Structures are given as C-alpha cells and as structure tokens.
C-alpha cells in the first residue's frame, strides 16, 4: 500500500489538483501560472530523477510550441490568452501531465512484471489493437492534413519506440489528456473550433494526439538526455 501511494496515488493527485485549479482559476492567468509552477516544481522534486527532468523540459518545449502552432491555425481557442494565443500557465501543464503519468506507467509495468507472461502480453496486444485501430479510423474518417500529420508522427513513434513502457505511456496520457481536456472544455477554459463530437465539443483525434506527443517527448528524453542518465538507470 505504501508503494502504491508513493508511485501511483501521489503522481495521480498532482495532475488532478492541477485540473482543479485550472477550472477554478483560469480567468486569472498570473495566479494560475504561480500555482501551476509550484505543482510543476513539486513534480520535479518528488522522486527526482535526471530522466524525469529531461522528460519535463522536452514536454515544456514541444508542448508549448505545438500549442502555439495549433492555436495559430485556429484549431482551438483559449478564453483568456496572455500572449501568442496562449495563457501564461500552459508551459507547466504539459510536463505535469506527461511526467506524472510516466511515473504511473512505470509503476504499472513493475506490478505486471510480477504477474504471468501471458497476462503481460495480453494487455500489450489488447492496447496495441485499440491504439492502431483508433489511429487508423481517425485517419480514414477525418482524411485531412491534421489526421495525416498525426499519422506520420504515429508511424515515427512506432518505428522507434516499441517497448512496453511506450504502450502504457500512450494509454495513460491519452486517457488522462482526453479526460482533463473534456473537463476544461465543459468549464469553458477553451473550445475546439471543429470538434467531431459536437455535443461535448471534443475532437476525435485527441487521444492519439496526446499518446503520440507523450512518446515523442519520451523518445527525445531517452535519445538526448539533457542532464545525463540516472545511475542506476531509470526505466525509460
């Protein structure tokens, strides 16, 4: 129970509190940036590792840049932007989500290592089928430039990251990202301009976008660690 709390419950609670504060404080960009910055610092400090720090920095860079490009293309619109179409707190949200859900994914793998090989393979096959099926359907259904760009990045990730951690990271971030965005959209923090699911204002491609993005960040942190590698090495 102690290990579950340390490696799963606490990493889960940090993004959960972040989501709560976003929904409550989003009209106040400076205040929310300070709160998010504190939660980001807590994320890095808790169970500190060099790999997690690299993961966080790449998430900040790629996440913020990606948000800027997508908002500039009018794919979604924030209700209270600060500059460059984005609110001040956005750079902290990506690393909070990606790094904490990476921690949970590693914990899940460690738990499954104690189970039967058939169970581990069964989970991987199931998630693999669901992921590929969703990406294939999204590409076919949308049939636009966004879908094809997403498919290209998915194939890139598939070519270079085929470890169990990549599948669990994809699933965890896809689920966490979609749920968090759903809550934020309902609270009016931002809105999508062309959502497929118009009744809830959500895009079809969102789970894949989060899952692929998390694995691109993981690939960069694994291949080009900014602060060296941990000894003993973290599970990457």
TrEMBL record:
Q: Does NADP show up as a keyword for this record?
A: no
Alphabetically sorted, this entry's keywords are: Membrane, Transmembrane, Transmembrane helix
User: Could you name the domain of life of the organism this protein comes from?
Assistant: Bacteria
- Give the transmembrane region(s): 5-22, 28-48, 55-78, 84-109, 121-139, 145-161, 168-188, 208-227
What protein is this chain from? Answer: Uncharacterized protein
